Amino acid sequence: MSALLFKNGFASDNHSGIHPQILKSLTHVNISHTASYGVDPLSESLNAQLADLFGDDTEGFFVFNGTAANTLSLKTLLNTWNSALVADMSHLNVDECGAPEAIAGIKLIPVKTNSEGKLTVEALKKHMIRFGDQHFSQVGCLSITQPTELGTVYSIHEMQELRDFAKKYHLKLHMDGARLPNATEFLQINFKELRKSFPMDALSFGGTKNGLMGAELVLFWEDIYKRNFRYIRKQTMQLPSKTRFLATQFLTWLENDLYKDIAQHSHKMAVQLKQSLDNFSEVKVLYPVQSNAVFICFPKPWTNALKKSRFFYIWDPDLWSARLMTSFDTTQKDIEDFCKTIKTLSHSQKEVAP
Amino acid sequence: MSALLFKNGFASDNHSGIHPQILKSLTHVNISHTASYGVDPLSESLNAQLADLFGDDTEGFFVFNGTAANTLSLKTLLNTWNSALVADMSHLNVDECGAPEAIAGIKLIPVKTNSEGKLTVEALKKHMIRFGDQHFSQVGCLSITQPTELGTVYSIHEMQELRDFAKKYHLKLHMDGARLPNATEFLQINFKELRKSFPMDALSFGGTKNGLMGAELVLFWEDIYKRNFRYIRKQTMQLPSKTRFLATQFLTWLENDLYKDIAQHSHKMAVQLKQSLDNFSEVKVLYPVQSNAVFICFPKPWTNALKKSRFFYIWDPDLWSARLMTSFDTTQKDIEDFCKTIKTLSHSQKEVAP
Amino acid sequence: MSALLFKNGFASDNHSGIHPQILKSLTHVNISHTASYGVDPLSESLNAQLADLFGDDTEGFFVFNGTAANTLSLKTLLNTWNSALVADMSHLNVDECGAPEAIAGIKLIPVKTNSEGKLTVEALKKHMIRFGDQHFSQVGCLSITQPTELGTVYSIHEMQELRDFAKKYHLKLHMDGARLPNATEFLQINFKELRKSFPMDALSFGGTKNGLMGAELVLFWEDIYKRNFRYIRKQTMQLPSKTRFLATQFLTWLENDLYKDIAQHSHKMAVQLKQSLDNFSEVKVLYPVQSNAVFICFPKPWTNALKKSRFFYIWDPDLWSARLMTSFDTTQKDIEDFCKTIKTLSHSQKEVAP
Amino acid sequence: MSALLFKNGFASDNHSGIHPQILKSLTHVNISHTASYGVDPLSESLNAQLADLFGDDTEGFFVFNGTAANTLSLKTLLNTWNSALVADMSHLNVDECGAPEAIAGIKLIPVKTNSEGKLTVEALKKHMIRFGDQHFSQVGCLSITQPTELGTVYSIHEMQELRDFAKKYHLKLHMDGARLPNATEFLQINFKELRKSFPMDALSFGGTKNGLMGAELVLFWEDIYKRNFRYIRKQTMQLPSKTRFLATQFLTWLENDLYKDIAQHSHKMAVQLKQSLDNFSEVKVLYPVQSNAVFICFPKPWTNALKKSRFFYIWDPDLWSARLMTSFDTTQKDIEDFCKTIKTLSHSQKEVAP
Description:
The structure is a homotetramer of 354-residue chains. The first copy, chain A, has 354 residues and is an alpha/beta fold.
């Protein structure tokens, strides 16, 4: 753990802290008393802002983390006798400790993804079975992660194909957008355009991995979901009290395009990292770098030295691949130092095995 | 709502903001990257601090709010076929939107409280029935709120009586300590002494209502609970990611006795408020003022004017009683202004109905 | 236990066996193969029969026991953030081991009953609070037991008052009719007339306590409930497979008014039992005998001798009251023998304490 | 549906009725009153019988159907943060409408089976990941179906391999034995020998598919499971009341080796059916016939005529394979008639396409 004490790294965008502007905004709103539980004036401003960005009927609800945003999205859209189609490697399937099953009571259908970590109509099609059969959990929702767990971004066309497929089978649509601005910036579209291609019933709109201290939103457009979600959220223990401090974080992030700046910076850093890593023959970048993640294969003996330089996590212990995440505060020095370390290792290795 | 825009009041200790020292601490730890999910160095320091205060085996776990602290305490201590004895007016029973039932799967037995809002052995006794009967949800836990919902404080003797009763029936003990330091300061005991009188299996140790931005702890002492809680918490969507920012709030609050200062100040303000209100014959203070709450009955026609002066909530619409809460930032001016308004009303009323 | 080995008694109408006609019907339909899971021809006939008795839109669904009928009725009518108003002594509240909470995820509001074990508008009224408040489980349903746990029967007027009350607050209506024909026969109404006075959204229509081997129905009239219940039932593990054997039991019971005969007989036996018991000054019959239950207070020292004569259960250990249940196979000899035993005890007691 | 009205077929062993001896036993025990809820003398005899067959510590608990037996087995063995390894085609995964997720709150890991529908160590191994990681539902149980969904039987050696694998990873063992005697008869072992090879923590021991009217048992050997299951069963709505009628079915089935006779007969019929079908070049038997199931591929145009002869279900609509189940009452005439129909079809087809 000692290597991790307050030092930049590529471990995760939640290892980074709070963006300075966002932190400052907490002080601005720390004045006197105001209403709690989402009826403070700042929470109301935020909803106006969300309507601006996502369209007129948008309503956002704070929840505390991504596990809640994803799990409660499904809980709101589905009955317990429904299942949701998810990527086999999705957070919902492998990183929520069974919350969708235990808390939403639903079944997940893990679907194989293609070489870029994306769901395809072809892979989904074979799960379209036994509709109307009471013995079988009824497929009721398609959930995609945008950008994907591999840092790739569904194109507009890919989203439209999934939308058309879902429509055909009357599936609800959910998007896990823990890092959504990374996708919209890569696609060069705004949120309204995103909704046109993929008209979600529920969106997990994450802040924590984008420079906030800790806050997520779930967005709905249909009245019935908005009405029910207030009770669902409270009952599932996700209603925050001093909401002004969550609202101000999101407001600051969304105002003056700060969210775009952060997405662009972290993408730029990821691309620079990839380009720097391309110089080393022993390092192989695995997927297109379309957001703030770079996945690499590298010689296993380098691991300790590399982690010491800038900490990161091993993604696949069989392939010995690593996930390198950039964030709002990643610097060129981080990249340079990391590559300097590689250079040493690469050099020594060449000497050992010429 | 407009009356509520950033103006001090007596509505709730979560209408107040963040204590300045605690807010400042966020900036101090906003440096570089560090581990998330509770393995950062600050979270580890906090556990050392908790062991100091509560005894050697103490381990604390962040959760996001009081609903979670209470509900997950019960979920950890009980099986789904157990019930918990709670005060009929307790948060668990009337303010969690059914979370204990829906999320912990347990049954609550609402027990009548005495004139000070406290559970008594006499009232609990009659619920000690049908042990071993598979048709009946088995009573498994006693949960008390300290201070109570009415702002009163269980005496050491009262806690000991409940402890002995619970022991006799092999009941687990839980304490909802959303405002715990208000009780320990009133009793002039420390947390270790508290545990001697009431050896809780789980404690909801609240921060949000005591000047933090938003953070609660659940404390356990038994290994099995500590082991299980890590998974229970994650699965119930309560695992925060950037934990350094929660840890620093609690650390700041617990260091240099800030938590005692806040409790003492808010109690002092409540006592002053009570004493000032005692001057008005139309206002009746209902319960002993032992923490930061003052409950009053007052003439219904005064309501709008009084709320405009300092906002508060009506507690019992039948009695037309109000709950006035003080907090770390309540000032003498708040009390004076409020009483000045009463004075006008009291005077005018006298003229109207001599 | 030895006293219980196959000897008539007053313990419960589920201590009795299967009515001979119903048992015989099992043999009649034990021919060859047929469809399972409720699409066999007998199950279809039963639904026609139910429509005849309860009105056109009636659809019945088998479940295995009363716990399921009651719990799943509420689960179908309510969201998890709803609560149901129930009698404090109702099966739902005290005899289902927390199933409504754990399986339906809802909260029960136990309501004090009047001296005949009935819910009244006056008692219900004070629970009509905090509608629209997300912190509070929203009251959504009124459930009554007909006949009540004390064997009394809500009059038509009483049912209408409860119906009007429920309508005012948009509450769904559920009836626990584990012994429903006992009530309709006492009131001399048919099931359609029952529905007019109390237009239930869901009815637990019990067979097991009325001479069947073991089968219950849940009846719905609204399409949405019928559609959802198929999945709810399967998922909550209540879908029987060889349904012809359940259908034939209900068909036989409902044909040729067998269900009325059974209700009338058991009521007649209860009345005779009450009249015989009235002869003993030491025995006090507690409530009006309106179905197949007689509740008595009697001298505690008699207990063993009386249980040996005809087994029964103590109802309230404080009052030392007993519940004596009659059933389709209760005979005059059962009553005579029981009273003979009392006579001996009564006589000997008189000698002991003249 | 009309084709299904009381005519033998190969649809499922729950399309058949009640074995005559078992039906007769209901009459034998339909005498007078006796205790309910599993404390009647017959239920107690059954437990003695089970101890004889399965070993000293065996305790059996009635539940109503296979969904309950399987789901509650897992619920009893696991915490909600555990997952269970199951065959991808297992009932638990695809035929319980999400009950394991919704009722037990656990996650299922669907594992690919080999060409005979069996789980193998190789396939299981890759799911042994992330132990101790709170973000990941912890693998806690291996559940196998014996015989499998494809009618094949795990050999003793195969069971031992799985047992050793499970032991290594501290996994609990569950067996779905809806048709268990078909497996033990094929393997020529008794239940104690079965337990030696595969020391289950919980066994779903089915009766309904083996000639009973409708009853299943869950067997446990550990005290903690037995203690907890009483409450789990009641709370999940699976406690039957007139248990003498379930006990007598199992007793009759287990006495005088009736269960072996039924298993042997249905296996013999399945083998004869397979051998008869082998005569037709257009029909392909897909898997080894080791219990009472024969899976075939056959020309799609034959479907209606074949179903009319003896009803059955299509298993895989892509392969156009069918599952033919035999049962205690399958006759040689059933096989002959079915093959006669095929002969006509086969002949006519030959003429059409010579």
